[in-house]
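Quick entry, no commentary yet.
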Amino acid sequence: MATQVVGGLGKVSAVTSEIQVLVQSVKAVVEKKIGRPLCVFHGISYCSQIVSGTNYFVKVVIGHGDEYIHLRVFEPLPGDDAMPALNNYETGKKLFDEIKYF
């Protein structure tokens, strides 16, 4: 992992299989919040923020064509009993929209 300042956002990278598993873990919550089922739900890129755990900011394609959503998923520190959780999301995103803190 590249050097990262605690609390700052890391560089944007392609989604790995581990991040895709994290994204899939919050899919049902996202569907409930936006009020519709999502047949397509695949992470494209992400960056992370180290806090007391890790916030992952992930660009996810949710439709055919140019429909994206940005997710902020919190993963607790190893050893905590908590599961990853959706902390926030932004709809109406496009492929080339920059991933920023939200």
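second:
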Amino acid sequence: LVYLADYLLRGYGHESRLTHLLNTTDIYILPSLNPDGFEIASEGDCTGKRGGRENARGRDLNRSFPDQFSVNPRLDLTDVPEVRAMINWIQSNRFLLSGNLHGGSVVASYPYDDSPSHAVSGFYSRSSDDEVFKYLARAYSAIHPIMRTGVPNCEQDMEETFK
């Protein structure tokens, strides 16, 4: 994302298409939601077992957001101020499209990719924008140097493949 920011800044005023995009679009770049985890993460660790998932207070930020299926989603966000800040940021901006780069296994996640029983596999959570999400995931994965091979090459699970 730092390279993306650099590209946008260097290209502004020099590339007409890019200049037009930046003049007509709000673009937000958040380099890291979890700088604590990033600091201790190990390159190539697809599971996060060597560190990187948790913040400085030992909480997994990815598992600390409200759940769309929770009946009573009261959350204690004391140990995850990053999550509270992100929720406030999301609620104070009108995002039309967003993307994120998630550390760990090589995957293209769709919004709402969960089930009421939190099934790990065998459940597809379709959304009203499903075709758009699938198109974006395919377009991204087709040019990603690892995703396009179908083999993530994670040392913890060398048998893992994806379509």
